[in-house]
């Protein structure tokens, strides 16, 4: 298992000692998921944290009509988990799905949380990661959902060309909270 990118990403948040790194690697394993395979199903307990080595992963919830509503997408070198479900120790409200064939490093939530208590540097990584990704990044996203139009959010998504090109049109429409027909109208409007 090649952990270099995984460790590099962790160390961008906070540098880990050799001892902490060894303890973390010990609880990690590699797994592959096929396109459309669930890493976590809504209503299940979140038992793992994941790091994406290759592939694309989506987070979605299902509305009353049975439509999948995508909340966020994760590309390579991202950490993925149903964080609030882990913190609350409750079943996840979200499903996590492989939108492409994926290769991930996974580590059990229970073992990782035990390591957080033993290793100060790992706890600092975790805090800095949560602050950056679940507070700093998430706040503008919530504001944009409330105040920006689907067209404004589409234009923002378009700026992330590498992610945009990997998504299917129904994923984009779902993420924007509109129908595929409305998405077609927005695209026509922009391309005039």
UniProtKB/TrEMBL annotation:
Residues 12-133 form the Cyclic nucleotide-binding domain. This is Crp/Fnr family transcriptional regulator. It comes from Chryseobacterium nakagawai.
């Amino acid at each position: 298992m090649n952990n270099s990118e995984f460790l590099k990403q962790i160390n961008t948040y906070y540098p880990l000692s050799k001892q902490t790194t060894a303890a973390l690697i010990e609880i990690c394993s590699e797994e592959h998921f096929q396109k459309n395979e669930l890493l976590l199903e809504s209503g299940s307990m979140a038992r793992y944290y994941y790091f994406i080595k290759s592939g694309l992963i989506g987070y979605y919830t299902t509305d009353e009509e049975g439509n999948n509503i995508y909340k966020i997408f994760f590309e390579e070198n991202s950490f993925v988990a149903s964080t609030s479900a882990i913190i609350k120790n409750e079943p996840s409200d979200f499903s996590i799905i492989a939108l492409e064939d994926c290769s991930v490093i996974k580590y059990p939530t229970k073992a990782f949380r035990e390591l957080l208590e033993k290793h100060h540097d790992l706890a600092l990584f975790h805090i800095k990661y949560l602050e950056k990704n679940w507070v700093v990044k998430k706040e503008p996203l919530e504001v944009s959902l409330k105040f920006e139009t689907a067209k404004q959010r589409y234009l923002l998504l378009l700026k992330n060309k590498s992610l945009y090109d990997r998504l299917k049109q129904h994923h984009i429409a779902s993420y924007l909270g509109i129908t595929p027909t409305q998405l077609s109208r927005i695209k026509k409007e922009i391309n005039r």
